[in-house]
Amino acid sequence: MVLWAHAHLRRILSQWREAYISLYLSIVVPLYNEEESVEALVKGIEETGHRFDFAYEIVLVDDGSTDGTWNIVEQLASRIPYLRGVKFRRNYGQTSAMVAGFEHAQGEIIVTLDGDLQNDPADIPKLLEKIDEGYDIVSGWRKDRKDHFSRVLPSKIANAIISHSTKVRLHDYGCSLKAYRANCVKALNAYGEMHRFFPALASMTGAKITEIPVAHHPRKFGSSKYGFDRIFKVFSDIFAMNLIIRFSSYPLKGFVLSAVPFVVLTAFFSLLGLLAIVLSWTTGKALFFMMAAALCAAAVVQLVILGVLGELVINTSDLTHAHLPEITIREISVDNNQPN
Amino acid sequence: MMISVILLLEDCYKDQSDFIAAIDRIFSDIGDPFEILVIANGTGNFFRSRLSEIQGLRNRIRAFEFGNRTTQAVCLKAVLKEVQCDTLVICGSYQQLSADSMREVVGALDDSCDVVSPWRQKRVDPAFNQFQSKVFNGLMRWIVGAGLHDFSCTVKVVRRSVLQEIELYGNMFRFLPVLAADRGFRVKEVPVTHFQERGETGFYSLSDYITRLIDIFTLFFNTRFTRKPLRFFSTIGIGFLSVGLLSMGVLFIQRFLFSIPIGNRPFLFLSLMLTILGVLVSSAGLLGEIIAFTNGRQKKQYTIEKTI
Questions:
Q1: CATH for B3-123+148-196, among 3.40.630.30, 2.60.40.10, 3.90.550.10, 3.40.50.300?
Q2: Which of A64, A299, A310 is opposite residue B287, by nearest beta carbon?
Q3: Which of A55, B71, B83, B288 is 20 to 30 A from B243, alpha carbon to alpha carbon?
Q4: Confidence category of residue A12, pLDDT binned at 50, 70, 90
């Protein structure tokens, strides 16, 4: 009897907790060798957090740091009850750190920040306002960027290309300060080096995306963790992402489109071959044109086969991103014509 | 420290009861509590007939059997459910390390590492085998970039969590330390004394060499490109494509600026073929990217050491 009452009480308590103090906001920060800045960062977040009238948590993800970052995280966690830490076994990159943060975040809204103090936590309320207006993703735009020219220029070019190719019009994809509705970004299951493409990928789900200008501070500690070879990688990622966003739901279409030039070539060479036979040009020519036509036709067949394999892969996959838009479905009614 | 000793017995070595007794003696001498799990991988009736004799040694020996021979990776994954301790010592079919070395290797697993890989600095097998082994290990260091010296030693000491977290399949057991390091586990290499070698002497069969090379390539691809296949394929594809297009350009200039006939020259075919090859290889990368995107996303790419 006592046991039953106890269990009952606990259940009621946990239900009450879920109903009234459910977490609204999770702030996710990936950290890689940031021992100098962690404390200042958490202090900055807390200063902003004191003004919130809802519960929030801080999730610090240590991306395999080799310095004392994790020790500081542990100290902070013992002092701050709503701060949690996740430690990777080795360095896996910013995307993985963010994804792990999303996984551990319990809030309805997730805000990501850079660990190097270049983003200002004071901008968080502005992002949340936009979320309240009904947007699913609010991206920060470092309008007045405080970085060296050699970093800003490639980034600007990359931004322009991403903006034009993915049709998600933002100025600044590289800014880490972003706010997401948790269900939108968790469903992406991102991997590799995709964090730059979260908005573009999320647009596959039909999420509503906007941006607001945010503050940007010059780097105080340490050096930037980007090398020159990143530029090549970023551009090859842009290419891959575009192909995925466009064709991963219709692989056959993508491959057939890439086969079109070869279809044209096949037709062209066949025609010349026929002409060579009919008009009896020199014997070598007919042979050459026919062989060339056969080569091009083989390429067409191969590409179509690859496309069919692609359809097979998508069809047999457990997780079809074709279902991603289901996340952002919402009921609408006449009374409710807030920003769509 | 509780130790589970896993013996992966292959059918080609017959006198395994002596080996099991030797292992039992070594670990009894170490003194820590331990269990021995023997996996008879396709050894069939021979092993079964000696079972009572083997288990008569100590009742802590448990035996498992695969009727048909399978890979070591499958054996390990299967026996992992039965293992009771957190420290695993995996051995092959015969005693490759001396008792002292074995003790050293087991003792080397401390808080600073998760995997211990023995390095047989002085080897006792024929010079030609040593040479082949050197070539293999050198290839591994060069292609995969692994900082270890000896991948062929059958003894490995690992924590159970390592085996639970990494993907082992096919012939990947040999590369356990590399795969573990790739998942962020710490690997330590310990120099040991080679005790005896029972493998083939001289040349292996051709298929063995080919298998080995393919294994190295598989490891290379698996550790670097499974989440970005396009980068791998497009590097090759763009190489072909650019050579093909370049030679086409040369032919074009020859034909239209210098009126040199090109229709009957193999060069024309070569450039056409290279162009097509380039497109096909890059397209395969696109297919790979689609597979990674649709199926790879549920698998976590990272490993978490702790959370607070």
A1: 3.90.550.10
A2: A310
A3: B288
A4: low
